Every structure is written in C-alpha cells, then in structure tokens.
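Anyone able to model this chain together with phosphoenolpyruvate?
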Amino acid sequence: RRAAYAALRDKPAVSRDDVRVELMVNAGLRDDVAALDVTGADGIGLFRTEFQFLVSATLPQRERQQRLYKDVLDAAGNRPVVFRTVDIGGDKALPYLNKSDMDEEENPAMGWRAVRLALERDGLMKAQARALLEAAAGRTLHVMFPMISEPWELAQCKALFKNQHDWLAKRDRKLPKAVQYGTMLEVPALAETLDFILPELDFLSIGTNDLTQFLFAADRANPKLAERYDWLSVAIMRFLSRIVRTCAEHEVPVGVCGEMGGRTLEAMALLGIGIRRLSITPASIGPVKAMIRSVDVAALSAYCAELMNGRVANFREPLAQWARENDV
Ligand code: PEP
Ligand code: MG
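re: yes, here you go
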C-alpha cells in the first residue's frame, strides 16, 4: 500500500470527473517542510508558528522567528506556505510568558489564547508580523489568524500587520510582493458573521479540531469523549456545508485544516459538500489522494445533498456503503 501511495506522489489530486483538489500539509517545525517533497503536496496549508515558541526555553526573538520563516519559505520554493500567527495561551502555556496570567484558567481551550492574548500583548504580535513580512520579502506572504471570534478581532489583526508593513515601507525595507490574509474558522460564532468578514479575506480555513470541540461542547483532549461524537454527524456536515456555500457566494476560497480532512471517509464527505482544499497530516496525503482519484465528485455531491436533506443523523455508514458500491 505504501508503495502504491508513493507512486501517486507526482500524480495530481484530480477526481474521475476532473475536479482538482488542493492537497496541502500541516507543519510546524523546520524539518516538517521535507514532507512537501516526500508527499508531493501542493504547499503548507497550516504552519503552526507556536511550535517554535513551545519548544523554546525563552521567548524566540524576532530575528529567530524571521530566520525560521525564511528557511521554511526557501525550502518550500514556489509552493505556498500559510503561516498561522501564534496560538499560544490556554493549555499551550509558556513558562516564560506572564505565568501568573496564564495558569489560573478553568477552561483553557476557551480562555486567553491565540489572538485574544496576542492582541493584548501586542508586542508579541508586532514582532511576529515584522518577522513574517521581512522573511517573505519579494514573495507572497500568506498569513492567517487563529481563534478569531468576532469581526473586530480580524480587523485589529489586519491593522496591526498593515501598520508593520507601513513601518517597513517607510524605511525602504524589502517587502512581500503581496500579502494574503486569511483566518481560521474554529469558533462557531464566526460562522454567523461571514458576510462581514469574507469581503476582508483572501481565504478561509476551517479548523475542525476546535470547531467540533466547541460545537459539541466536548473537550478535544478528553479521551473519555474521543469516540462519543462523530465528524460525520449531520450537525457538523450541515454546519460546514453552510460555510462552504457562503464562501462560494463571496468567491473566497475555503479549506479545511483540522485532522478531520486527513481521514479518508471524512475527506470524501468534505469533497461531497464542496471543499476543494485540504491541509492534512503528511501521512494522509497518499490515502486521501488515492480516494480523490477514484471518486466521481458530481455523483458524490448529489449523494451528499440527498443525505443532507434526508433523515440521516450520521453520514458514516451510508457514505461508506456508497464508496463500496462506487469503487472508491
Ligand atoms: C483546529 O483547531 O482544527 C486546528 C487546525 O488548529 P489546532 O489543531 O492547532 O488548534
Ligand atoms: Mg485550533
């Protein structure tokens, strides 16, 4: 099997009826970039910049951040890299950062994390913005913000980046050719304000790990709950399907970067509701590409629409059967 997946490395992720899917990998460390060549992925759809902070004994200074980002961009060549600004705080507490603020939360996943922290301790975010802008000099910078819950948070993040951009421009520093802004959709409330935020965005990326944790009110780190709820529940599928439809209306590309997209059947369901961009763990690229190449997306979409409107509380069984019947 592994050999069969390796043979797919240079084949495109195109369905039987010619639908092209962008397959990207999730990464976080310098060495993860090697996965691009190993898997033949189209780029890095989620670079978790907090990894550098988490493995470091002291706060990584701007120069060190910038070096990492540039190394990653150099290694990726002309393949896009989507850098997510730090998602620290909550359970990803950093010993060197305001410990007293951080260790008293009862619900860290819903706590002072990601942009909630970064916009308040904005020295951190400014340094990261400059590191990213300078590292991407001469190229397109793709940046995205985690845990955005309200439109004003996105506005503040973008304004912060634009200020840093202006600051660098005034000093005649070399700048990115373009900056593409995106946000994670992982807080359910944001789905109700898509009409506000989509005009401000170049792309949207659905983080199904946090999103499902919040939709089901089920801690993603609690093993007692790990098997209880299903990504293929109609609740999730309907929720995602509405987001995809709204993004299409606004002509903003939307992808999924949570672990859900790395499971073959889940990835198939996502294709069936219109997702055309997945960022997944490198080991999943082969199996997911094999699935894409064997499926007829038009037939799959029709079947998913039927399930969506029927009285099916969970897509798993019917989809698995459909896949068997259709040689996927
Ligand atoms: C997510 O929440 O789905 C996601 C991709 O981000 P993380 O797993 O880093 O929280
Ligand atoms: Mg998340």
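Strands lie at 22-27, 44-48, 81-84, 140-145, 178-185, 203-206, 254-256, 277-280.
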